[in-house]
Amino acid sequence: MSTTSDSESGCQRVEDLWFSDADLILRAEKAIFRVYGGFLAARSSVFRDMLSFPQPQTTGTQTEEETIDGHTIIRLHDEATEAEAFLRAVFDSSFFMPPPNPVKLDTVIGVLRLAHKYDVQYLFRRALAHLEVLYPFDLASLYAGGSLAAFSTHVQFEGWSEPAANTLQAVSEVGATWMLPSVYYAIAHVDEFWVYTSEYLEGEQLEKCLVGHSHFIRAHTSSHRFLHALPLASCNFTACRVTVAGAYRRLNRRTDLCQDAEPLREWVFDSMNDELCSACSDFGAARHVEAQEAFWESLPSLFQLPAWEKLMEMRQKVMTDTA
Asked: What is the dihedral of CA 275, 281, 286, 288, to 10 degrees?
């Protein structure tokens, strides 16, 4: 954020969002922005309604801090960084492009919150589209993109616990309920996640993650029940018996309480698949996929959320242009 001090207001001007001929001055915390009210009102119904009311006239009783160049400062009760991200997205078409254009997660969350608050629907849907790359709403997208929130090709963030917790808070606030199963899963599958997220999560959300993690451990084991049927009765390859025995050993280690429990991206079968004969491999792959699909269908209920069908109805209402 490029800023300069404003002697009249005691705040910091954001230079890239300070247009000298603009008619609207906004303040968020100590940051002030001078932008075009008509342009903003054309995109935001909230600002359109706000600016439709006559602005108070400058009088001798007003303090210098309340006006700049005769324009009343409108205070926004938002974080300065989020207000800047939102206004840049509105006034600079190249700043917040659709996926897969690179973008910082903090920017996405800031735009998401304020586009929802100020009713700028195209930016709201764009922010959600970025987050859906990190937290897919269907299993095919998860398989295509890798582990949840781990292999994004364009959304940039550092660390894990705070970004995940911030995302959970943000999507909850804006009513993007269909994203919650994936976000909860991304948090709760990690071993001892509570050590890292307790600073950011509390109450019901933390409790749901704790309960979810215990379910994940059990699902981690049940998704490999097909191992009992391997090798197939028709298999005569010694290598298959050796491979299955090794898989049992790895599974027992991985299902220890001190291990991550990620049923949807479990490597036990993947690591043994190339060592099996074609018949055993095909059988195991089919049963493993069935187990993962069953777990995915059950995921919303683990966090006391509506079923996927209902969640997709919610998504359709928000993400279509006619919403």
From this structure: -30
Structure tokens at 279: 């018949």
Q: How far apart are CA 114 and CA 93, in angstroms?
A: 17
Segments forming the whole domain that contains residue 117:
86-212
Please tell me whether residues 219 and 197 are part of one structural domain: no
* pLDDT recorded at residue 147: 54
Q: What is the pLDDT of residue 312?
A: 96
Q: How many domains does the chain have?
A: 3
Q: Which parts of the chain sit beneath pLDDT 50? A: 3-4, 58-64, 257, 323
Give the contacts of 259 (CB within 8 A, at least 6 positions apart): 191, 253
Mean pLDDT score of the chain, rounded to an integer?
86
Q: The tokens of 148 are what?
A: 């949840």
Taking a C-beta distance cutoff of 8 angstroms, is the pair 182, 148 a contact? Answer: yes
Q: Which residues is 156 bridged to in the sheet?
A: 104
Tell me the C-alpha distance between 34 and 124, whole Å.
Answer: 23
Which has the closest alpha carbon to 213: 259, 180, 147?
259
CATH code for the domain of 51: 3.30.710.10
Catalogue the E-assigned strands of the chain: 3-6, 11-18, 24-28, 31-35, 67-68, 71-76, 103-104, 155-156
Q: How far is CA 188 from CA 73, 144, 205, 206, in A?
A: 44, 21, 10, 9
pTM: 0.86
Is residue 310 situated within a structural domain? no
**How many Å apart are CA 251 and CA 227, to the nearest integer?**
10
Tokens of 229: 């049927």
Same domain, 132 and 191: yes
pLDDT (0 to 100) of residue 322? 53
